[in-house]
Amino acid sequence: MDNVYVQSLRIPCYDTDGAQMLKPVSFMNYAQEIANCHASVLGFGYDDLIRTRTAWVLSRMHIRFNRMPLWRDNVKLSTWHKGPEGLFYIRDFRLADADGGEDLVVATTSWVVLNIDTRHFSREVLLDEDSVCRDNALTPSCGKIRIPSGTDMKFVTGHTVSYSDLDLNGHANNAMYLLWAMDAIDRDVTLSTPLKEVKINFNHEVKAGDCVGIHVCGTDVPEGRKFLVEGRTGGQENKSSFLAELLF
Questions:
Q1: Secondary structure of 119-147 in HEC code, one letter for each residue
Q2: Is 152 in contact with 217 (CB distance < 8 Å)?
Q3: How many helices (H) and strands (E) does the chain have?
Q4: Tens digit of pLDDT for each residue in 55-70?
Q5: Beta bridge partners of 22
Q6: Where are the alpha helices (DSSP H) in the chain?
Q7: Phi then psi for 143, rounded to 5 degrees?
Q8: How crowded is the C-beta side of 82, counted as CA atoms within 13 Å?
Q9: Is residue 209 within 8 Å of residue 160, measured between CB atoms?
């Protein structure tokens, strides 16, 4: 594939769980970093956009975990951008084994460019068509997640956004939403059953001091066990900060 950015990694112990497997949240951190590295090479990374007071903001993400790499495994992480799609810019990811022959994790993401002062969408990013790669790690792009009518979303816990949650823009890092969702699900599930797939809609940014109420509903499906997890902020306004669908 042309226009693909690749990094070789060795899975460190601090990115693994009690079974010595890569944590799903760690993959999100890897994806965030390599996306910025590639965008910087292409001329529209963080430093390029901040000059016009704009920034990339992750809006939607769909990840499929085929097989989790283990502590000390050597892997190859690759990413490429697929250009605009409606309001979004699409970027895909593939985490493969050291030889590149087996896809361990695949993902597709949808981004917007936001003016950090007005919080309005911006279309000032000019993408060179020659830098686009049309390969699909996952298709279609992640859609809007909806809570079915009649679903009983139960309040599980509240989380106050603190220092360890924040990113370089002063808001909760996108990976933290998945971490909060995983922590809110019954440990009998998360400690014994690998996560197969996750979709996340990032609906409303949260910052230090905000309290996010985590609401969960779990159901059995033919593929395994599915959970809807929603984070809500704003007190009586009850805004949805994120909505995630996790399949174990």
A1: CCECCCCCCCHHHCCCCCCCCCCCCCCCC
A2: yes
A3: 4, 10
A4: 999 999 999 999 999 9
A5: 16
A6: 24-42, 46-50, 174-184, 187-190
A7: -95, -175
A8: 20
A9: yes
